Amino acid sequence: MMYNFVIEWNRLKHRGPDWSGLYQHGDFYLAHQRLAIIDPASGDQPLFNEDQAIVVTVNGEIYNHEELRKLLPNHKFRTGSDCDVISHLYEEYGENFVDMLDGMFSFVLLDTRDNSFIVARDAIGITSLYMGWGFDGSVWISSELKGLNDDCEHFECFPPGHIYSSKSGGLRRWYNPLWFSEAIPSTPYDPLALRRAFEKAVIKRLMTDVPFGVLLSGGLDSSLVAAVTSRHLAGTQAARQWGAHLHSFCVGLENSPDLKAAREVADYLGTIHHEFHFTVQDGIDSIEDVIYHIETYDVTTIRASTPMFLLARKIKALGVKMVISGEGSDEIFGGYLYFHKAPNKEELHSETCRKIKALHQYDCLRANKATSAWGLEARVPFLDKDFINVAMAIDPEWKMIKPGHIEKWVLRKAFDDEEHPYLPKHILYRQKEQFSDGVGYSWIDGLKAHAELHVNDKMMQNAGHIFPHNTPTTKESYYYRMIFERFFPQNSARLTVPGGASVACSTAKAVEWDASWSNNLDPSGRAALGVHLSAYEQQAALASAGAAPPEIIDNLPRMMKVGAPGVAIQS
After folding, report:
1. Which residues are CB-contacts of 258 (< 8 A; sequence separation ≥ 6)?
2. pTM of the model
3. What backbone phi and psi angles, to 5 degrees, belong to 116?
4. Which residues form the Glutamine amidotransferase type-2 domain (predicted)?
């Protein structure tokens, strides 16, 4: 048992190259591979309470740890680690303390006084977590599949916003926001309230004792992250330690429009900008490594993970250990291309709820594992609990895409400050690019051509017999599935990957919005390209009649440019 445990533990060393900690208590083993972000000198794990009766291993960040320490005046902390509060909160509040944590986290806590343990995961599933069971009665918890798949008879994704208690032997959801029921909210849109909530979300993520930067694609979301970070960096502890000049990072195919847009934003904000290029062949050569680390066979996730995986390696080589990124905005505000077809505000709101609930299987999975593969941490302010509460309480009529309101209009308008602009107008109102398409059609077409070399028509004819679950429908998806099955052949592994009909990253339910989509189930944005173009043609007609808002008129030439080759990390 111990030998197998150490083997599995060492498979996760890439996630935490700074320290390896192991603790044993009877039949309980807790191990941790540490990426040191807060208190690198003394925050090694496992962490303990005063008498070492409570033992914790944690992946993630607790942004409100200083406030929580003030609630524990009679406790003595061994380290300055943000995660050190967890064992002490458990002592004071029992298993009901998890909702007090503001951050991204997955943790296991062992109470040696009665040999009970709890497992918990953050609200949205920003950090990855899996749970498995062995024939011998053992229970395994790991940040990645590869940490337990060889020793468990069954394993599955640990659900976000849940806690497992060995005392009750079951899971319960600790995260219960109002939006989770998908009831239609009615709060009027307040642009300043939305702006303040996002700024607070970004500011709290500037908590770091190591060099950091931002991922910048030149798209709306990453540009807002960079703009707010740049505006509030001065005066922070991070600035005092590492300087007030923000570093930004972008990767792309050479001469792509998105690289140009990122340079423009970086110049406007005055960041120290790092631009990296990759070729289609570079990406293809990395596919097997990407699938091994991301642990999925989902087509869009693999397409988007590959540039991020390549970029993370370059960033880590520069000595940077943390980046702030823009994941989550499209899910919250209905920013994907197919939202143009939302028939009403009720359907739009329900779809945003479904998308947020599924983030742990897609964009959060990508952001966490593509960066962790190289010992880099990604923080995502759009998925801040408080910010989500504000954004999801807005009457969804304001999020509907219609003449005068392009996708994510409520977010754009919130940062449209004439006196102290956050971004140039044409960036603030820049058209949404689907990530895998923004990479450039040469990237996607190159992947498809490569798959054609490895998957023939006869293989596709038998796909349903070889892969009865989530049967591949294209040669590209078949190719990814073959690689995944080689690394993770267990049935439990294939069940961790979502499936179902999708068009341009939609859920299966949203495919019903347009009857023609059922015949064109392409996960990339080009499937919804026609409706996206027609929407902006409608804007153009309004502009010619003088009926469109000035910011729309000014940016129509950019909005009408769809499908240009380019690349970016998370617009």
Report:
1. 217, 218, 219, 250, 252, 433, 438, 566, 567, 568, 571
2. 0.92
3. -100, 160
4. 1-169
